[in-house]
Amino acid sequence: MYQFIVNPSAGAGRGYRIWKRLEHQLEMDSREYRVFFTEHQGDAAEIAKVLTAERDDAKVIVIVGGEGTYNEVLNGVSFRGLLTFGYVPAGFRNALSKGFESFWKVNCQAKRILHPKYYRMLDYGVATFGDEEIVSRRFAGRCGIGLDAAICHNLLCCPVRNQMTRLHLTKILRFGLGLKQLFLAKPTKGYILLDGTQKVEFNHIYFITFMVRREDKKKRKNSELMNDDGKMTVYIGNSARKTKMIPILRDLVMGVRKKERGIRVFECNEAEVHLARPLAVHMDGESCMCQQNLVVRCIPKRMRMIGS
Q1: Pairing label, strands 59-65, 2-6
Q2: C-beta atoms surrounding 284 within 10 Å
Q3: Where are any strands of DSSP class E within the chain?
Q4: Residue 186 to residue 205: CA distance in whole angstroms
Q5: What are the tens digits of pLDDT across the range 182-191?
Q6: Cβ-Cβ contacts under 8 Å for 137 (sequence gap 6 or more)
Q7: 223-226, long-range: CB within 8 Å, 24+ apart, which pairs?
Q8: Tens digits of per-residue pLDDT, 225-247?
């Protein structure tokens, strides 16, 4: 039986519209399914926790929503027995939705979910933080501290977010919020320890971003092909001049990852971040408040996902 966790509010109501089309396809195929709608933040995690509480038959959980809904489900599930995931992106395009059909190709999505040709074993990341109470949180696509996270925090509480999403102007909104956060940003000193051996120090850190699903540059035929090999790509924005961060901010908002002056790129399985003062943190776009120390590691090939 298919278990659907649907965020009807994702993408300014796009999640509900996608679900209605999926529901029609399910009824056409006479498929047995259950659907759970989220109403508030945290609902998806609670639903996933209940669905995976007992180790019984194989389960298929299909997520219809944005990267925040996906993140909640990932943090709510218990990996017991055979657990298979499906994902139908309903939010705007981001690092997590790469490798999946676009949201408007719902018929293709339904066919892929109901008649899977293959499965992929995907990596996911785990970030550990906190001083008095240690907290661990999973993420499927990206984790960030600093400017990247500040933009996500601002976007979550932006009053015009839904209107801009309906007009397909989310990237413009993100860039505008990014300029605002860059103006307010104060770089900090700190260092990162890669795989417990390589220590790299910085004097003007604006952001550190971890990407779990990395582009496979050797094998790719298009930019959507992702490589899950147990490693993360780490992007560190460090510059003494704030103006040098503007083109980097543009690429960050547009989802372009490339080497340029002011940004350092590393690959690792595990990393420790230690900063002189706390900065904003996010996991898949969801706020984790402000943290000063962060440990991030990649869990290889743990999620069984219906192939795109």
Answers
A1: parallel
A2: 28
A3: 2-6, 33-37, 59-65, 83-89, 119-129, 135-139, 142-146, 188-194, 198-211, 214-215, 226-227, 232-238, 263-268, 270-283, 286-306
A4: 9
A5: 999 999 999 9
A6: 75, 126, 127, 128, 129, 283, 288
A7: 223/98, 224/98, 224/99, 225/99, 226/98, 226/99
A8: 456 778 999 999 999 989 888 88
Quickly list DSSP for 190-222: EEEEETTTEEEEEEEEEEEEEESSEE-TTT-SS
Per-position DSSP letters for 38-77, written without gaps between them: --STTHHHHHHHHHTSS--S-EEEEEEE-HHHHHHHHHH-
| C-beta separation of 294 from 281 below 8 A | yes
Q: Over 50: is that where the pLDDT of 53 sits?
A: yes
Report pTM: 0.87
> How confident is the model over 285-298, as pLDDT tens digits?
899 999 999 999 99
How many Å is the maximal CA-CA distance in the chain?
A: 61
**How far apart are alpha carbons 87 and 305 in whole angstroms?**
8
How many Cβ atoms are within 10 Å of 307's Cβ, its own excluded?
A: 12
Domains of the chain (ranges; CATH) run 2-117 (3.40.50.10330), 124-301 (2.60.200.40)
Q: Are strands 59-65 and 83-89 parallel, antiparallel or unpaired?
A: parallel
SS3 158: coil
Strands 135-139 and 142-146: unpaired
Instruction: Give Rg (Cα) of the chain.
Output: 19
What is the phi/psi pair of residue 142, to 5°? -150, 155
**HSE toward the beta carbon, residue 90, CA cutoff 13 A:** 29
